[in-house]
Each structure stands twice: as structure tokens, then as C-alpha cells.
């Protein structure tokens, strides 16, 4: 036998020979390539799957010796190809601005070597020249005589701690620029046409970022205003099959969003001139400034507050949940839809939100990290951490404290945590959300802004240009409900009618085309309804208080408003007067908004003036629970209710609201089942249709058979298959099925077609998605439809990223670097083991009957075994029925995962429709119609017409003379068939 050292050398040589071509680190490039004195200098490093560069979400420290600048980048480098699993990527870093001069930028990487030693390698020495001069200080706007008098009074009162907040508010009202409350970069949103002969968005981007620029721009007058550079609105670019789809459908909303650019201009540039000039160019489809979005529970920005008196309240409770009748609704359906939040982030380790403990124990939290991302600090930084108080880069003023990495910690946090708690706080905690098991996909859209000296506060501020991006990404991820607790007073009654190509409006169109249920806060100014709540595709959620009346802190006056002399945060917006022409937005629904008890960011305050945060209502209340006020709270309550309804029947579209009879959609169900509508009270301009009775809405979604509310429904488990990624995936959500369809390696439908559901939702004029198909049908609530049937168990979706085929070169098609294995688990033990094995937990995908004994007599009529088995060679797990078992096993799906787990998930229904009425037998077994008779009660109105699986119930299918045939199980009694 060879000595061990020789064997080691041979192994190392073989590893080098076999090292994949995807193992690479390309030379870094400077950003911007020709910096000026005011530019923050950065760089990016492209790398392959054997290397990983990290720390890119934060400014990286540099050292300077003469004119040589040095940065050391932390990294990982694998020499064993078995561990080359990082995928391809580009790490982007920022440093700081430098004065004019000629420099050399030395970029080193450091990593732990094969023998455990620390290795430092120089990967680039880039010469560059900084030109220009740093920006001059902008003088504070002059104050008029009243403001000067107020300032004089303020200086006298400054030492009076309890009066300091009111001084700050007065300054806020008289001279806003003096406090540097907001950070507003000089940018426009630019959408390029995609007609034949037009320049591409790449052409425009490359021109704007080139130095020197070509004398002939791709669009005339593109240089107006002297733009300094450009970037894409969507910085995570489409790839693979999804990119092919966008190129084939250039007029789709999603393709337009992919082409949208953010163009930067020097401070002081007159953007009105830029917009008017470029609007006249035929190649420009739209150009505008980002909409000035603000959260609908305002944060006080740029000031310190102290000495706040405790709020005088009775022991806080969740009165808003009581108003909505949530607990009674949960006795019928808890809900499990995926809800998207574009917000300030959340407390990622909050015990009522997190999925797993530090040791891997499943805690039941509904926050979905794998479906969440922080884009608020773009273009400087982004990462997967959406924690509201994560140390981050700052924008704007320079008065706030930073650590050695150039980071700061926000002085205020909690808006997103409060919103998330109202949607889906863990029901095991003291605070309960409105939807028991709804998944929470959070996209953080705010950035940290520094106050002006001498104030040292750091506050979150909405990055308005990233709102359309967040809505787009959340739609692409497959959310079923989209909550928007923000808005602004739009200058038009219907902004998107006036400017349909505005980026925000295109993002709403993209979500609407996928039938995403959208809810937004009406606003807190006692004015007309804010945008986007004012958009007809969005539910406008206004606010009520404990008395069930419209939230108003000081009716008819400003006396008791939280901010002295201001209408801000004083009450809910609403439609100021009836609007018969329906040209202006109406209030649609209302929910609790005043002093709402929910989750808070521990030990943090969001807004001391309106008593919002962990310290309220006062001493003894903290630890992640507290109060907040605003229609920011109403919107997530309605979103949670919508999540329950989407779960009861995932195939029902949002539709439009109406109180007249008819099938309609989710918004119709909500409008017809408010307390006001049920009492015969008509719609009003203040309360809209009113506040929902959630139990009544759930009963409407479930339906009635033979005069009694049914306990459950059946829905298709859509099977999606990707040959390119060698993966089967199963979902009850049409929105998630579409997310898979438009993945990098697109999935297509597999199995029998779905009766009555001929197409997934898609945008008119675009390529239709594959026809929906499903072999298995599962139940939609957690309650067994008959006492004699086995109890139900949830199907947890889990996913794991991978490269397919394993070890392939990402630069050589058909290598898929963003492939994944999606599968379903049915026990907490399996979920915990899969999570330990690298799988990410997503959302519940319906329910199946638990395994029972003795089989087959304990299996409900019409049901059959549902299996999960894995094909080791493909690193894929699939879900299939007993009737398909031989086919899947012949294709290699024979292994259990986790290794010691049962492959039997439980019992589900097949796609058989014995009576050909358009309802699968399983649906009829569950709801109680006869699966062998297309018209169970014999009145000439078929079961599928009266009680469709896809839509809302039209009539009771079991009230006629032949209702003796309902429920259908009667004909199987005592063994007779």
C-alpha cells in the first residue's frame, strides 16, 4: 500500500484535474468606473460555485497608504469539489468617497486554507482617478418671522424635557428641511419602449454608465440634466426560461418592470425639466419621480423624545380580533395562504414569528425567511436579513453614530413587526393574528436615514423607488395576499388611470394579472383615501376604534390630535362624500386601528407621539407586545381575513366588491358578510361595507348542502414538473404554481386536467401558462368532514436549493444553478429533520387524512393513499397517489426522506369524476352530494352548476325532491353500492 502522504498528493492532484469549470473568481471591477469626489467608491467580484464572498451587505473598511487604498474581503474557498455548492454570484461592496486624485485600489481576499491556515491573496490592483470636488453644504432654508419666533421660544424650552416633543413637532411643521427628516435622492423612473427598432433598456443603461459616453445617445436628449448613472429597478434580473418568456411577451406588465430603469442626477437638478424633455421622446414609454410613499403609522424622524407619560388605558386586549369574530372563524378554518408584506422588516427572532428554535425545534411561527428579502438600502446594499433593527448603512445626514463598519442601529423600529403580528402571530402566544397559519413573506423597503446634527437619531424611511420592486418580487414568489400598510395622497382620483405606465401602477397590474388579493391602508389624515388603497384593484382598509365607529381622535377639531395643530395621525381617511359616478375611490372595508394590541420589536419604539411600540401602554407592558395606532393596523387585519378565505378555496379570484346577489369573488364575500351588510345597513362613505364577520365569510366560502354549512372542501394539489431541474413540486395555490412556471428552469403541469379550471390566471395578450393539472385532491381546512373519518394533518411545503445536473458548469446550458427540490412533509418530526438537512420551510398546502388502522376499512370513501418518495440519483422527492405508485417507483422514486420516516403522508382523493358532472368524486364525498348522480336532488340544475369546486356556491344542490340522495355516503351504507 502507498504511504498516506502519497495517497493525499494523488487525491489533491485528482481534485485539481477534476475541478469544475464553474470554479472561478473573475477580476473585480470598480463602481463607478470613473468616480467623482462625492461618489462612494465600490467594487464587485464575480465568482463561481467553489468560492463565496460575504460581508457585501455592509460597507467594507479600507486602509490607505499614500495613494494606495486597500480592502480585505472575507471569503470561503473550497478545494474539494464535493463542497462546491455556493452557486454563481456577484459580491458587491462599497467603501467611502475619496478626494480628487490618482489612486490604486488593491483588493485582497482572505480565507481559511486546506491546512487550517489563514490565506491572504491579492486579486486585483485597480488604478483609478477621482475627479471633481465634493458637494457644498446646502444652507438651511430661511425661516419666516413666525418660525423664528417659535425657534426662539423653542431654545428657551429646550431644557424642559417634557416639552421637547412639542418643540420638535413645531419645527416639523414650520421648517421641515432644517431637520433632515427625509432622504430624497435625485432620481427618476424611466421605462423604455420595446417596439421593433427601439433601443433596449440595456443600451440605455450601458450608455448612462459609460465613461466617456458615446457622442450619440441611444435616445435623443438622454443627457439632459447631466445624469450620473443608472441602474435597473429590478436588480435581481430574470434568467433562463423566465427571461425567454419576458422576451417573447415584451408588452406584459412583468416585462415592462424588467425594463424599468432608475436614473440618477446631480443634487439640484431640475427633474421637472428632465421629465418634460424625455417624455416627448417616442422611445420613452414613461418617466416620473418615484411616488412619495410613507407608512400609514408614521414614524417621527430626526428627533429625540423623552419623558413620555404612560398611556392611560385599561388592560389592553385584542378588541379588533373580537370585532372581526376571528375565534369563531377559526373553529371552521384557520387559514394557511402566503401573505406578502412590503414593510419595515420584522423582529426575525420574535418567538411569535420564528419557525424554529436555535436547536432546530419547530415553534410554529409563520415568518418565512426563504421568501423574504431586504431591498430597502438599494442601490448600496441588500441582503436576506429583514430584521427591523439590523445594523445598516445610512443615508442623508451625518449626525448619527456608526460602528467601525459604517453601520448604524435604528432609533425606531416595530412597524413591520406589529403588522406581521396582526396578520399571523403564532396562535400559541398571547398575541394571535387574524390568520392562524398564514405564511409571512416580508420584503423590507425602508432604509436608515441620519438626522441632521446635533440630533443623533437614526430612523427608517421608506425607499419609495423600491416599493414597485417589492410588489413585483412578492408576486413572482407566489403570494396570494399582498398587504400594503403605506400610501400617500395622490393628486388624481385614479392615479393609475391617469398614469398606467407608472412603475407602481405596472406592479399593481402584474399582481392583479395573477389574481393576487391586494389590501392597503386608507391613511391617517381624515382626508380622501390614500393611494394605493384608492386603486380599484385594491381593497381600501379604513380604521375604526373600540366603539365600532370611524377612528377619529378629535372629531371636528385639531384639539386632541396627537400632533398639536396637525391632522396627521388624527383619524382614518375615508371617501369624503358619496360618489354616484364612482370616479373616486370608496372606502371598502374597515377594521380596528386605534390602540391595537399586537407584536412589537422588543425594547423598541416606533412612534412615541402616537404611543406606538414596546413601551405602550406603559410600565409592565413590554417584551415584544404593545400598542400602535393607524390604518397600518386595519390593513393587515383585513389581509389576514383574506388569507383565511383564500385558503378555504384557493381557486376563487379577488373579483370586485358588490352587495347584490351573485357568485363574485373574495371581495364580494367580504362585502356581503360585514356586520353592517348582514344587518341590512347600506354602504357608507366612512365605513364602506363595514367590518367583516369573518365566521360568516368563511361559511359563505365553504357553502351549504341540504341547508347545513359544510365542514370542508376539496381542492386540486397542482402538480408541477421541471425537466430542466429534475423536480416535482405540488401546491394548492395557483399563484405559487405560476411562480414555479416562471422560475429559471420553468415547471409545467403534470397529470390529469382539473374539471372546471381550464387556465391559471394570466395577463391578457400574453402567452398562456400551461393548463392546470392535478392527480391528487386535498382538503382545504383542518377539520375532518365526518366524525367517523380520521383526523386531518397539514402538508408542509419545504424546499432546498441545488444545482442541476449536479456539478454542472453554470456557463454551459442546460445547467440550472437556481434549481430546487420542493416536497411535502406531514409531521413535525419530518419537518425538523428536513430543516436540519438544509430544507427551508414554506407554507401549508392543504390537509390530508392521517394514517389510520385497520386499512382499508378506516380510509374514507373514495380516498386513497398519498405517498412521498425520493429518487436519490436526482436529489428529488415526489408526491403521488397509490394509483400512481407503480409508475413513480419504476422511475426510481423509492427512498424515504428523512431516512427513518414513513413514506405514507396520509389519504387524499384522486381525479376521478364518476358521474361526469365536472366535480371530482372526492369533492362530492366531502361536501355531501352524490358522486354517482350529476344532479343529486333531481331538479334539473346540476351539482357542478349549483356548487362548483372552482367558484362560490350558486345554490344548494340538495334541497329538491331527490335530496334523499344526499349525502352521497348513504348509498354505500351496509356495503351496498
UniProtKB/TrEMBL annotation:
GO terms (BP aspect): proteolysis
Gene3D superfamilies attached to this UniProt entry: Peptidase S8/S53 domain
Keywords, in A-Z order: Hydrolase, Protease, Serine protease
Protein name stated in the entry: Subtilase family protein
Matching Pfam families: Peptidase_S8 (PF00082)
Residue ranges of every copy of the Peptidase S8/S53 domain listed in the record: 338-686
Active site: 343, 415, 632
Domain of life: Bacteria
Similarity remark: Belongs to the peptidase S8 family.
Amino acid at each position: 500500500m502507498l504511504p498516506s502522504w502519497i495517497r493525499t498528493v494523488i487525491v489533491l492532484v485528482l481534485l485539481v484535474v477534476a475541478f469544475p469549470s464553474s470554479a472561478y473568481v473573475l477580476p473585480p471591477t470598480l463602481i463607478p468606473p470613473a468616480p467623482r469626489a462625492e461618489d462612494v467608491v465600490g467594487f464587485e467580484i464575480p465568482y463561481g460555485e467553489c468560492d463565496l464572498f460575504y460581508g457585501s451587505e455592509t460597507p467594507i473598511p479600507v486602509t490607505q497608504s499614500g495613494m494606495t487604498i486597500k480592502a480585505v474581503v472575507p471569503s470561503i474557498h473550497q478545494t474539494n469539489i464535493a463542497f462546491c455548492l455556493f452557486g454563481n454570484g456577484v459580491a458587491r461592496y462599497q467603501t467611502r468617497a475619496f478626494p480628487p486624485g490618482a489612486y490604486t485600489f488593491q483588493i485582497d481576499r482572505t480565507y481559511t486554507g486546506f491546512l487550517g491556515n489563514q490565506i491572504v491573496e491579492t486579486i486585483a490592483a485597480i488604478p483609478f482617478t477621482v475627479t471633481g470636488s465634493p458637494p457644498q453644504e446646502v444652507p438651511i432654508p430661511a425661516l419666516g418671522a413666525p418660525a423664528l419666533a417659535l425657534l426662539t421660544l423653542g431654545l428657551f424650552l429646550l431644557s424642559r424635557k417634557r416639552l421637547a416633543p412639542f418643540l420638535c413637532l413645531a419645527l416639523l411643521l414650520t421648517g421641515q428641511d432644517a431637520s433632515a427628516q427625509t432622504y430624497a435622492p435625485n432620481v427618476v423612473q424611466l421605462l423604455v419602449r420595446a417596439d421593433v427598432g427601439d433601443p433596449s433598456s440595456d443600451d440605455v443603461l450601458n450608455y448612462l454608465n459609460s465613461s466617456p459616453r458615446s457622442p450619440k445617445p441611444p435616445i435623443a436628449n438622454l443627457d439632459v440634466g447631466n445624469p450620473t448613472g443608472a441602474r435597473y429597478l429590478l436588480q435581481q434580473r430574470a434568467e433562463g426560461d423566465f427571461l425567454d418568456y419576458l422576451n417573447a411577451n415584451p408588452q406584459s406588465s412583468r416585462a415592462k418592470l424588467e425594463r424599468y430603469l432608475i436614473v440618477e442626477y446631480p443634487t439640484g437638478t431640475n427633474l421637472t425639466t428632465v421629465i418634460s424633455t424625455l417624455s416627448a421622446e417616442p422611445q420613452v414609454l414613461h418617466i416620473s419621480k418615484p411616488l412619495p410613499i410613507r407608512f400609514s403609522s408614521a414614524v417621527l424622524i430626526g428627533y429625540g423624545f423623552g419623558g413620555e407619560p404612560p398611556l392611560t388605558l385599561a388592560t389592553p386586549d385584542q378588541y379588533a380580533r373580537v370585532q372581526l369574530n376571528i375565534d369563531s372563524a377559526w373553529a371552521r378554518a384557520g387559514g394557511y395562504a402566503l401573505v406578502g408584506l412590503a414593510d419595515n422588516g420584522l423582529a426575525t427572532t420574535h418567538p411569535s414569528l420564528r419557525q424554529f428554535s436555535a436547536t432546530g425545534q419547530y415553534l410554529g411561527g409563520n415568518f418565512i425567511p426563504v421568501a423574504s428579502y431586504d431591498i430597502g438600502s438599494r442601490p448600496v446594499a441588500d441582503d436576506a436579513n429583514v430584521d427591523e433593527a439590523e445594523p445598516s448603512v445610512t443615508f442623508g445626514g451625518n449626525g448619527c453614530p456608526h460602528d467601525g463598519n459604517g453601520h448604524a442601529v435604528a432609533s425606531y423600529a416595530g412597524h413591520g413587526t406589529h403588522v406581521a403580528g396582526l396578520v399571523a402571530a403564532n396562535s400559541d402566544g398571547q398575541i394571535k393574528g387574524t390568520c392562524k397559519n398564514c405564511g409571512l413573506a416580508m420584503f423590507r423597503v425602508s432604509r436608515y436615514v441620519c438626522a441632521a446634527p446635533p440630533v443623533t437619531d437614526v430612523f427608517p424611511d421608506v425607499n419609495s423607488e423600491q416599493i414597485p420592486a417589492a410588489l413585483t418580487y412578492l408576486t413572482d414568489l407566489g403570494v396570494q395576499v399582498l398587504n400594503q400598510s403605506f400610501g400617500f395622497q395622490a393628486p388624481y382620483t385614479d392615479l393609475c388611470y391617469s398614469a398606467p405606465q407608472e412603475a407602481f401602477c405596472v406592479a399593481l397590474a402584474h399582481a392583479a394579472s395573477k389574481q393576487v388579493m391586494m389590501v392597503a391602508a386608507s391613511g391617517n389624515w381624515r382626508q380622501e383615501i390614500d393611494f394605493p388603497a384608492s386603486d380599484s384593484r385594491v381593497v381600501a382598509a379604513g380604521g375604526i376604534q373600540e366603539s365600532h365607529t370611524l377612528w377619529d381622535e378629535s372629531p371636528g377639531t385639531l384639539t386632541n390630535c396627537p400632533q398639536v395643530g396637525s391632522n396627521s395621525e388624527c383619524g382614518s381617511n375615508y371617501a369624503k362624500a358619496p360618489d354616484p359616478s364612482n370616479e373616486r375611490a370608496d372606502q371598502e372595508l374597515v377594521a380596528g386601528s386605534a390602540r391595537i394590541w399586537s407584536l412589537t420589536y422588543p425594547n423598541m419604539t416606533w412612534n412615541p407621539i402616537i404611543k406606538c411600540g414596546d413601551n405602550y401602554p406603559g410600565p409592565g407592558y413590554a417584551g415584544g407586545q404593545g400598542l400602535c395606532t393607524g390604518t397600518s393596523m386595519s390593513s393587515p387585519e383585513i389581509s389576514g381575513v383574506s388569507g383565511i378565505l383564500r385558503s378555504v378555496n384557493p381557486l376563487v379570484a379577488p373579483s370586485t366588491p358588490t352587495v347584490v346577489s351573485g357568485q363574485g369573488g373574495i371581495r364580494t364575500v367580504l362585502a356581503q358578510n360585514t356586520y353592517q351588510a348582514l344587518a341590512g345597513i347600506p354602504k357608507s362613505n366612512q365605513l364602506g361595507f363595514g367590518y367583516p364577520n369573518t365566521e360568516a365569510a368563511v361559511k359563505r366560502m365553504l357553502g351549504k348542502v341540504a341547508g347545513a354549512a359544510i365542514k370542508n372542501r376539496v381542492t386540486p394539489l397542482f402538480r408541477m414538473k421541471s425537466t430542466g431541474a429534475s423536480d416535482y413540486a405540488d401546491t394548492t395555490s395557483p399563484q405559487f404554481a405560476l411562480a414555479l412556471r416562471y422560475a429559471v428552469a420553468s415547471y409545467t403541469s403534470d397529470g390529469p386536467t382539473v374539471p372546471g379550471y381550464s387556465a391559471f390566471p394570466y395577463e391578457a395578450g400574453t402567452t398562456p401558462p400551461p393548463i392546470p393539472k392535478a392527480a391528487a385532491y386535498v382538503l382545504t381546512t383542518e377539520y375532518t368532514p365526518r366524525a367517523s373519518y380520521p383526523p386531518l394533518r397539514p402538508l408542509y411545503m419545504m424546499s432546498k436549493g441545488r444545482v442541476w445536473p449536479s456539478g454542472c458548469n453554470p456557463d454551459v446550458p442546460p445547467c440550472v444553478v437556481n434549481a430546487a427540490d420542493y416536497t411535502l412533509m406531514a409531521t413535525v418530526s419530518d419537518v425538523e429533520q428536513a430543516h436540519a438537512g438544509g430544507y427551508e420551510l414554506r407554507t401549508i398546502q392543504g390537509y390530508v387524512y392521517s394514517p389510520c388502522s385497520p386499512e382499508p376499512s378506516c380510509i374514507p370513501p373514495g380516498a386513497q393513499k398519498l405517498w412521498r418518495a425520493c429518487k436519490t440519483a436526482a436529489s428529488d422527492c415526489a408526491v403521488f397517489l397509490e394509483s400512481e405508485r407503480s409508475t413513480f417507483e419504476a422511475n426510481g422514486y423509492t427512498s424515504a426522506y428523512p431516512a427513518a420516516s414513513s413514506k405514507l403522508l396520509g389519504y387524499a382523493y384522486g381525479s376521478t369524476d364518476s358521474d361526469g358532472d365536472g366535480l371530482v368524486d372526492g369533492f362530492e364525498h366531502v361536501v355531501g352530494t352524490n358522486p354517482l348522480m350529476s344532479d343529486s336532488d333531481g331538479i334539473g340544475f346540476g351539482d357542478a352548476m349549483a356548487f362548483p369546486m372552482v367558484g362560490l356556491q350558486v345554490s344548494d344542490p340538495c334541497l329538491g325532491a331527490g335530496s334523499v340522495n344526499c349525502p352521497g355516503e348513504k348509498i354505500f351504507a351496509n356495503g351496498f353500492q
